[in-house]
């Protein structure tokens, strides 16, 4: 079992920056591919960014490419999402997620953290 706890977020002005953190614990958490998702009011949850544990391969949704950066801490038990040039449409609850392998579905989820971008 893997436990994920997000932190960070809050209220940010448009054009500003913030960083989210996700601390993973439990069974070999450092070896799991991890990612960030978000869900805006009235919309379905969508993929934001993902990072592998082994080769460090990273991938992003087109909507955040060039503005967001996903990374892992040295221990690989923590994943960050640096969010720059924030837009109003980035307002959402952001979720950290993990999966057993690149080919598996994301099955471990954090509780979510709110990011609100204001004008």
List keywords for this structure.
7-stranded mixed β-sheet; 119 residues; globular; mainly beta
| H/E series | EEEEEEEEEEE
Integer average pLDDT: 92
The rounded Rg comes to 13 Å
Helix proportion range:
under 10%
Bulk shape? globular
Unreliable residue runs: none
Helix and strand content put the structural class at mainly beta
Number of separate strands:
11
The largest sheet is: 7 strands, mixed
- CA-CA gap between termini: 40 Å
Number of helices: 0
Give the percentage of residues in beta strands.
Answer: over 45%
Compile the SSE list and pairings.
Blueprint: E1 2-8, E2 10-13, E3 18-26, E4 34-39, E5 46-51, E6 58-60, E7 68-72, E8 78-83, E9 92-98, E10 108-109, E11 113-118
Parallel strand pairs: 2-11
Antiparallel strand pairs: 1-3, 3-8, 4-5, 4-9, 5-6, 7-8, 9-10, 9-11
Structure summarized in a few sentences:
The chain is mainly β and 119 residues long. 0% of the residues lie in helices and 51% in strands.
How would you describe what is shown here?
This protein is mainly β and 119 residues long. Helix content is 0%, strand content 51%. It is built from no helices and 11 strands. Strands 2, 4, 5, 6, 9, 10 and 11 form a 7-stranded mixed beta sheet that branches. A 4-stranded antiparallel beta sheet has the order 1-3-8-7, with no helix packed on it. The chain is globular. The mean pLDDT is 92.
